[in-house]
Write a structure and sequence with these properties.
about 250 residues; alpha/beta; Rossmann fold; eight-stranded mixed β-sheet; 8 strands; about 20% strand; globular
Amino acid sequence: MLRGIERRLLIRARRWLDPWHHLDANVLEVRSFAHLKIALGWTRDPVLEGARLHSRPGLEDLNDRRLHDAQVIAGACANAARRIALEIGTGHGFTTALMAENAPHATVHTVNIPPEEIGAGGAYTTFAPTRDEIGREWRERKLSNVVQILANTATWEPDFGPIDVAFIDGSHDAEFVFGDTRKVLARCRDGSLILWHDFHPGLRKAYPWIGAVCRGVERLYREGLLHGRILHLQDSWVGLYRVPGAGAR
C-alpha cells in the first residue's frame, strides 16, 4: 500500500516538475486541413478570400502560415458557429470579417482594448490601433452581424452565450490567456470550440509571446479547466480545443 502511495506521489511530482507535461500529452499535430475536417466531423469548406492570406511579409509567415490560420478559424465558424461567436483582439478587423463572413447567421462579438488603456493590456500585445483603426476592415465591408466591444478583458466579463466559437488573440501574456479562456469556458456549451492564436508548442522557445500563450494554456490544464486534446494544424499558429461533454462529437 505504501509503495502504491509513493508511486502516485512520484507521478504527481513529475507532472508538476515538467512545465509542459499537459501540452506534451494532449496536443496533436494535424497534417492538413482535410484531415482536420475529418477529425472534427466538419462538412463545410470555409470561404477564404484576399491576397493578404497568401502574403509573407516576415519569417513568421513562412509555409503559408496566414492561410493555414485562416483555414482553422474560418472552418470553425463555418461548421460550428450556430448563433454566437467571440473574438478577443479585434485589431484592424481582418479576422473579424473572416469569422463574420463564414458564420453569416451568427453574431460575432469582438473585443479590443481601448487605445488609452493599452498600458494595462500586458507585455505581449501585437500593436495598439487607434479607435478609428479598430475594426476598420469589417466596417468597410459593411458586415451587419458584428458587435464591436471596447474593453480590457482583465476586467471585462461576457454577458452573452452560449458561445459556439471563441477565438482568443488579445494580449498574449500567460495571465491574460488563462483569464480570457476561463471566462470563455464559463459561457461555452458542450461541443463549443475555443481557438488560441500564436499557439505552437514547437515554437515556444523561438518566440517569447508563443511561449507565453503556451504557458497560459498549460496552466488551464493544471488547474483542471481543460480536459482532452488540442488539435494543431501543421504550419498554423492556431490551437483548437473542443469543450467536452455529452453533446460533443
